[in-house]
Specification:
The chain has 48 helices and ten strands. By secondary structure, the chain is mostly helical. The strands form three sheets. The chain has a five-stranded parallel sheet, with helices on both faces. Strands 8-10-9 form a three-stranded antiparallel sheet.
């Protein structure tokens, strides 16, 4: 809504803020400014002023606008803005974009290779950012995105990335947003709270400002504005600049306000309903264009708020001269404006104009115009690329051609899905599904559902997906073939598995089997079997592992016979999960088969799933998350939210086990916010389990119980993750409370759980910490050695997390067997295995110290000192106090924690070196005399001599010279 007042009224402070932001961008300090206000408040006028300032200062300007008129078009404002780069005639340096150039093909048709690579919004956001920086060329750049409240979710995702990354660039993003509940307004508010964006709110004009604006419109001084006019406009406009202009024009055109030789005066009744006055004023201006002009604008209104001249001319048959004549008249009447910077496009100045035109059209006339418009677009753009496809779909729907409209919306939705625009795809496919409901062609509706169901799953809209289940019965009754109907039920079963809704998924499997009958064809039953296998593995029950393996083997055999590569991949991936416990090599071979099949048949999603499982196995075996990070990058590239958050959950747990508690806590909160909103139950459960484990490793029982209560609310009972809540959370919390009896009870509960509901997760304690506690509790001799050897021989026992405890248990048994050197070597190997896991490393030392002292092997005093310091640093008081008590029992001195203790290297701290002794030790590197050291530390030479003697004893160095050499070798303190 552009104002035609000669200057901006009442926005001086806002203009200064915009001018400063533009100046900062020219200096390389870019950012984002949101202009926020109600419709008609003057956002576009302020934005236009910013554009003028930017042009005058030599900055490059890119402009794009969102619109809800017509169907959803992903990335519309970004595409419109970036396309102006190619219309300016200036060459675009794309060398700096590197691998990001192909990604931009989703926004820039000139760079579209036709590959439709499904990269993530993060990658696309980085690509746009690099293009903007490159296009600024040192002179600064303004990116104006108008009406962001109407933007599609994909555009907002890219804008959010830009908001977080525009600082220190020569680019200013300026966006206009209405003050209404919308995601764009939430984004702006979040940016302001985080300090990465400026939000400029435009209040209504005050009475003096309304007077100034009226005066500017009338070309007079403020004193020349009649008081009655001012009163009426203040009341009716509520300070909205747009309404002030429109109502003022209505007063003038209606003859109520006239200009005489002595200025403006009122000669008629100024009272009228605001909406009625606006509509009447608009219609009067339309009438003045004549019948042909009115017909032309009515046809344009059918095309939407924006309309292309080429299409308008073809649907009306008007000649060039008449077309331009009527358009210029429409511009003069303030009805339409050139839709800069897009060539060939115009736009109505306000949505009310479109509504006013529609009041003059009968439903039949409007439908007839829509059909002609659709014919015109398809004649000019037969491939219906880009936004033409959803535009024509909307026109066909307006014309009453439901089947064709449904077909086109489905095609537009599939294209959006291929481009990774999940939100827009759902909008388009959902409209297609509704249009095709009850059509005479159930197969076409089934095609839509096959695309819509997985799109809804990716977006986390499981409620809508399951609502569609009711329509499957109608499709069956409408004559849809049994294999096609079974495929739809199977697709819905996969959605249920993604959502963690086992019962719903199994019901869909039962319906698929019922449709196929008692003797189904292998090709039709294989996809059903593999989906059933995944559900069986997650459905509580004592034989779920065996049942899942049986179904997956049946599926892979049939799929190989009938060349169904997707089913082959899915089956091998599940079989690998089951085989991992008995033979990791067999499991890896199965995953390699899945990976090879996916690559040979170009199945990117299945390749990603295989990489994820390979990465997960590597993490379990060696504690190395590199493979998972690679798989996560692949999932991001493909836009698979479910896999990204599944991997994020594992990485959060990895951070917890590595003692990176602050990072894990922050990542868990961020991840939970998203997966809860998406209703991804398995991911929610896993992250809550990790959060409970975090609290447990800090001895925070209240925090653990809170996380576990939330876990139970997400159908935690009987889930694959439930044993981990006992083995990784409750057991370790009891150990951090020095309550080994409770820890053993928790581990006993793990055994009962896994007997009733076998799990493919192997960190629940049975293969690691449980063995160590049993050995410490007195399990020795042949029974202890047999139990140890059995655990050490299993694949779970060789996994790095479990292996540390198996080795600690071995050391205790070796000590009892009178083999002290081998026991010490086993502890050294345990410490190497436990190196990534500081909490369990020090817990292991604390647990075996008493046994080592009793059997006379190892360095129990040093181990206890090391463990005591660790748990004191992490405020785990029970374990720290237990370590101090054990030191006293062993006759070792217990040192107070003075300031500076953390600076002492761990090897010296384990030897009992105090803070003051360490200060002396550091100075010995300079070969100073006792007096010089005393002067530096403000103590007596005699005290220095005592500290040096103590250091020689504790470090087992032969003399002062050797101690000085050790200090020098240690480097700066």
């Amino acid at each position: 809504m552009r104002s035609h007042a000669p200057y901006v009224v009442g926005r001086d402070s806002q203009l200064r803020s915009l001018q400063q932001a533009l100046s900062d961008a020219r200096q390389g300090r870019g950012g984002v400014v949101f202009l926020v206000g109600e419709a008609g408040i003057g956002k576009s006028r302020l934005a236009a002023e910013a554009v003028g300032t930017a042009f005058d200062s030599g900055m490059r300007v890119l402009r794009g606008r969102s619109s809800t008129t017509g169907p959803t078009v992903p990335f519309r404002p970004l595409t419109e803005a970036l396309m102006s780069l190619f219309r300016s005639g200036e060459p675009v340096d794309d060398l700096a974009l590197g691998p990001y150039r192909p990604v931009l093909g989703r926004l820039i048709p000139d760079w579209n290779t036709g590959d439709h690579e499904n990269s993530s919004m993060v990658i696309l956001g980085e690509a746009v950012l690099r293009l903007l920086i490159g296009a600024a060329k040192g002179r600064g750049q303004l990116l104006l995105l108008e009406d962001l409240h109407d933007a599609d979710p994909e555009t907002l995702a890219v804008v959010e990335y830009l908001v977080d990354n525009l600082e220190y660039t020569p680019v200013l993003l300026l966006a206009t947003i209405r003050t209404e509940f919308c995601d764009a307004l939430d984004l702006a508010g979040s940016a302001r709270r985080r300090g990465v964006g400026t939000l400029i709110e435009l209040p209504p004009l005050t009475r003096p400002q309304v007077r100034d604006m009226i005066a500017a419109q009338l070309g007079t001084e403020p004193d020349g504005v009649p008081e009655t006019v001012l009163d009426r406009l203040c009341d009716d406009s509520t300070g909205s600049p747009f309404l002030i202009e429109e109502l003022l024009q209505s007063m003038i055109s209606g003859g109520a306000l006239v200009q005489g030789t002595d200025g403006w005066r009122v000669v008629g009744d100024l009272r009228s309903d605001v909406s009625t006055a606006l509509a009447r004023g608009i219609l009067r201006r339309i009438d003045r264009l004549g019948p042909q002009g009115q017909t032309l604008l009515s046809a344009a209104a059918v095309l939407g708020r924006r309309f292309p001249l080429t299409v308008l001319q073809r649907m009306t048959g008007i000649d060039d001269r008449s077309l331009l004549s009527h358009l210029h008249a429409g511009v003069a009447a303030q009805l339409v404006v050139p839709d800069e910077p897009a060539p060939d496009w115009y736009a109505f100045r306000h949505p009310l104009t479109v509504e006013a035109l529609f009041t003059q059209l009968t439903p039949g006339t409007r439908a007839e115009l829509a059909g002609r418009a659709a014919d015109a677009v398809q004649a000019l753009h037969p491939e219906l690329t880009g936004e033409w496809c959803p535009l024509v779909a909307g026109l066909r729907a307006e014309a009453g051609e439901r089947a064709e409209a449904g077909r086109l919306f489905a095609e537009a939705g599939r294209r959006a899905l291929a481009d990774g625009a999940i939100g827009s795809a759902i909008t388009l496919l959902d409209r297609a599904e509704r249009l095709l409901a009850g059509s005479a062609d159930p197969a076409r509706r089934a095609e839509v559902l096959e695309s819509l169901l997985p799109a809804l799953a990716e977006a986390g809209d499981f409620t809508r997906a399951f609502d569609l289940a009711e329509h499957l019965h109608a499709l069956g009754g409408a004559g849809l073939s049994a294999p096609r109907l079974a495929a739809l039920h199977t697709r819905l079963a996969k959605v249920a598995h993604t959502a963690g809704r086992w019962a719903d998924g199994n019901r869909q499997i039962a319906r698929a089997r019922a449709v196929l009958g008692p003797s189904p064809d292998d090709a039709a039953s294989a996809p059903v079997d593999v989906a059933a296998a995944y559900l069986a593995l997650d459905t509580p029950g004592p034989d779920r592992t065996q049942q899942a393996e049986k179904l997956a083997r049946s599926a892979v055999e049939a799929a190989q016979r009938h060349d169904l590569p997707t089913v082959v991949c899915q089956a091998w991936e599940l079989l690998a999960s089951v085989a991992r416990e008995r033979d990791p090599a067999e499991a890896h071979a199965m995953l390699e088969r899945a990976l090879t099949t996916a690559e040979r048949h170009r199945l990117p999603l299945q390749r990603m799933y295989a990489l994820t499982r390979i990465g997960g196995n590597g993490w379990l075996a060696d504690g190395d998350a590199t493979g998972l990070a690679t798989a996560r990058d692949e999932a991001l590239r493909l836009g698979s939210a479910t896999i990204v958050y599944t991997i994020d959950g594992i990485l959060i747990l990895d951070s917890v086990l590595r003692g990176e508690f602050a990072a894990a806590r922050a990542a868990a909160e961020e991840c939970l916010t998203v997966v809860r909103r998406l209703r991804l139950a398995p991911a929610v459960r896993y992250v809550l389990m990790a959060r409970a484990t975090l609290a447990a490793h800090l001895g925070d029982r209240a925090g653990m119980d809170e996380a576990l209560a939330a876990f139970a609310a997400w159908d935690g009972a009987g889930s694959q993750e439930e044993p981990l809540t006992l083995g990784l959370a409750r057991t370790f919390c009891a150990l951090m409370e020095e309550d080994r009896e409770t820890a053993r009870r928790e581990l006993h509960a793990v055994g009962e759980l896994e007997r009733d509901n076998p799990s493919t997760y192997y960190l629940s304690g049975r293969h690691g910490i449980g063995l160590l506690l049993d050995v410490l509790d007195g399990l020795d001799g042949r029974a202890g050695r047999a139990r140890h050897d059995e655990a050490a021989a299993t694949a779970p026992g060789r996994m790095r997390w479990n292996r540390q405890f198996v080795l600690f248990a071995d050391a205790v048994l070796l000590g009892r067997e009178g083999r002290p050197q081998e026991a010490a070597a086993a502890v050294a190997e345990a410490l190497r295995a436990a190196e990534p896991y500081p909490t369990t490393l020090h817990l292991g030392l604390r647990l075996v110290a008493d046994a080592a002292h009793a059997d006379g092997w190892g360095e129990p005093v040093a181990w206890l000192r090391r463990a005591e310091h660790h748990f004191h640093q992490h405020d785990v008081a029970a374990v720290a106090n237990a370590c101090r008590a054990a030191l006293r029992r062993l006759g070792a001195p217990v040192h107070q924690h003075r300031t500076g203790t953390s600076r002492i290297p761990e090897d010296l701290r384990a030897l009992g070196v105090t803070v003051r002794e360490y200060e002396v030790f550091v100075l010995l590197a300079e070969r100073l005399s006792n007096k010089d050291i005393a002067d530096r530390l403000y103590i007596s030479p005699r005290t220095v001599e005592k500290h040096i003697a103590s250091l020689i004893t504790k470090t087992d160095e032969p003399n002062r010279t050797a101690l000085c050499a050790r200090s020098a070798a240690a480097g700066p303190g």
